[in-house]
Amino acid sequence: MVCGLGPAGRALAHRCLARGISVTVVDPAPDRHWTATYAAWADELPGWLNPSVIAARVDEPMAWGTRAHRIERPYVVLDSGQLQKSLNLTGADIVADRAVELAPGRVSLAAGRPLTGRRVIDARGIARSPRLAEQTAYGLVLDARRCAGLEPLFMDWRADNGAPGDAPRSFLYAVPLGDATMLLEETCLAGRPALGGTELRDRLHHRLRSRGIELTGAERVERVRFPVEGGRPGRYTFGAAGGFAHPATGYSVAASLTAADTVAAGAQAWPASAHAVHRLRAAGLRALLALPPADLPLFFDAFFTMPPAAQRAYLSGRTDLTGTVTAMRTLFGALPPQLRRRVAAATLGMRIRSRIRIPSAIMEE
């Protein structure tokens, strides 16, 4: 039984059905159309995934810290509707209700009746909490012709969004959607609390005006807010709920798609190496949250000067302990000396005093 029909839960149910396993899925709105934009590195996607789900491909996206970096790794934007359609649930018993309490072999529904199954998997995501760091973003979808000259950007930390120099930083994310449009999104990578939607909207508008991109007010809006921590790795959780989200990037869809076959086959999705990588990634999130705003572009300058293999190991090597350790060592060595003490202290969970005051008015509304 799979509870939750986001990309992770639907992928797991789909792969179980492909193996001839009887599946019950529980979701309060199982026919809800996906509207969020999902993307991944091309080499993360599993071979069984229908190629038609790829809406756009960027062979070498750009990243900006204080200077430009060309990322030597293809990046793809998924067609959310086609992805949902491709993960078909033909043959599943679909229960349109909310799972309120899960226990081994048993689910209690909001309607009051219980369901039983040989194995119950929680794929409902992570509930928001003030204790959890979140990623937030405000985006606009524009005709690509209005963005002429703007290259696809994985992240752009340049300070042309109108924010004060000592304010929490946000970056521009810009990707083609495959239908002659582009998504331009002002993103707070991680915050506790995260930047609010109004502040991100104002920053995006300012940034686009500064780059000569005029808005009409009729653009489609995309809003993002989700925890980047709080998942519980284990046999009975999956997707973001199961710790598949990368806490330093928020990405979880590709990791969930890749692991779906493993879990459907009854194999171990969390070997000891994956648990260790999960802990190291959590340490990386602590380091990001501890950095003064002005230091974030310098941090990512160091990250994107690492060899592509090291970047891939840290961003995508969920079970690659050796690669992750090597990448973190390489990154630490590439950091400017003034950042190393702060990163080391945060990674080890030590408290250090920050001289940066963060205006509360621009944090979460």
Could you please describe the fold and organization of this structure?
Helix 1 (7-18) packs parallel to helix 4 and helix 7 (308-316) packs across helix 8. The radius of gyration is 21 Å and the shape is globular. The chain folds into three domains: 2-126 and 230-264, FAD/NAD(P)-binding domain (3-Layer(bba) Sandwich); 134-227, Alpha-Beta Plaits; 272-361, no CATH class. It is α+β, with helices and mostly antiparallel strands. It starts with a strand and ends in an 18-residue tail after the last helix. It has helices at residues 7-18, 80-86, 197-210, 253-264, 272-290, 296-304, 308-316, 321-334, 337-347, and strands spanning 2-3, 24-27, 39-41, 54-58, 62-64, 68-70, 75-78, 93-96, 99-103, 106-109, 114-116, 121-122, 134-143, 153-156, 171-176, 181-191, 220-227. The strands form four sheets. The chain has a seven-stranded mixed sheet. A four-stranded parallel sheet has the order 8-2-1-12, with helices on one face. A three-stranded antiparallel sheet has the order 3-7-4.
